Amino acid sequence: FVCERMASRAILCLLFACLSAVVLAEDPYLFFTWNVSYGTISPLGVPQQVILVNNQFPGPNINSTTNNNIHVNVFNNLDEPFLFSWNGVQHRKNSWQDGMLGTNCPIPPGKNFTYRFQVKDQIGSYFYFPSTGMHKAVGGFGGLRVNSRLLIPVPFADPEDDYTVLIGDWYTKSHAALRKKLDSGHAIGRPAGVLLNGKTGKTGGKDDKPLFTMKQGKTYRYRICNVGLKTSLNFRIQGHTMKLVEMDGSHTVQNVYDSLDVHLGQCFSVLVTADQAPKDYYMVASTRFTKYLLSATGGIHYIATDGSKVGPASPVLPPAPTGVAWSLNQFRSFRWNLTASAARPNPQGSYHYGTINITRTIKLVNSAGTVDGKLRYAINGVSHVNPETPLKLAEYFGVSDKVFKYNTIKDDPTPTEKIVVQPNVLNTTFRDFIEVIFENPEKSIQSWHLDGYSFFPVAIEGGKWSPEKRKNYNLLDAVSRHSIHVYPGSWVAILLTFDNAGMWNVRANSWDRYYLGQQLYFSVISPARSLRDEYNIPDYLESLRCCQGIAHASSLHNLICFFLMYLYIYMKGCVLWL
Question: Is 270 exposed, middle or buried (0-12, 13-18, 19+ CB in 10 A)?
Answer without folding.
Answer: buried
